[in-house]
Amino acid sequence: MARVISVEVEKFPIAGSFTISRGSKTEAEVVTCTIRDGENVGRGECVPYKRYGESVEGVQAAIEGIATQIASGLDRRSLLDAIPAGAARNAVDCALWDLEAKASGRTVASVLAPQAAPLETAYTLSLGEPETMAAQARLNADRPLLKVKIGGGGDDAARIRAVRDAAPHSRIIIDANEGWTNADVEHNLAAAAELGVALVEQPLPAGQDEILRRIAHPVPICADESVHQAADLDALAGLYDAINIKLDKAGGLTSALLLRDRARELGLKIMVGCMVGTSLAMAPAVLLAQGADFVDLDGPLLLARDRQPGLEYRGSLVFPPTPELWG
């Protein structure tokens, strides 16, 4: 019996709005791939990202374009060559992992992370004026790790200071989303160091970051938009100290595992991050993130409504997925 593939576009409201240097949104629009093989069903979720030239319609069409190959038994390794890295491949890859788990009776956790444990995730504060960001920080000052969106023009050092003053005991990651320039990067890095920031993520636009090779790194600098797959890593030597692995960038868990392992060989710190999606998108990333230096898998915490069943969150702890959700 051939597999049956379906693709669905779903929308989940965000609690309030989510703002970064490239704009704001009030809902998470996700694409879910479902693969049925007899009584077994595997699911994977992705979030198309305009920054990488993706759209919901394009991702849906890409998955439907390889539906015949999937129905005929396409496996995860062959998938790496069948479709480029990106959101569409992620949804299919994660659905295949889930399907394999359901068919074998062995969870993905038992294969990849038998000692999988709860992880401390960052909680994201949206970009705003310093006083607005300080108010967000005060509401979340009991969280041990905050991720702060900056890089939207104005005084980013003031934004960082406002958050630090409002949440003096939290570790802080700042994410400029490519919003800094050669003219302000050193000033902003120095301010981050002064305020005890733990990590600075993607300060400069991808491909326009050569200055990072020549300037001091008083705070570790993490590549996000500059890295998608393991093949990207050699070009980052001397530029970055860490990488942010996202399943939607890497094109699935299979590719993300290769990226993680190669980064570790090169001595880079590992961050596992996410787009704003539901627990179905976060579930495989929780397993990928076991042993990571930084974890940013708070997507469901930013939503007004998540899937049921979803991941279990207790404060800033996120627990490994149950098979009812994924894997």
UniProtKB/TrEMBL annotation:
Listed Gene3D superfamilies: Enolase-like C-terminal domain (3.20.20.120), Enolase-like, N-terminal domain (3.30.390.10)
EC number: 5.1.1.-
Record text on cofactor binding: Binds 1 Mg(2+) ion per subunit.
Protein's name in the database: Dipeptide epimerase
Annotated source species: Aquamicrobium ahrensii
Family: Belongs to the mandelate racemase/muconate lactonizing enzyme family.
CDD domains listed in its UniProt record: L-Ala-DL-Glu_epimerase
The protein's enzyme class: isomerase
Chain ranges of the Mandelate racemase/muconate lactonizing enzyme C-terminal domain: 130-222
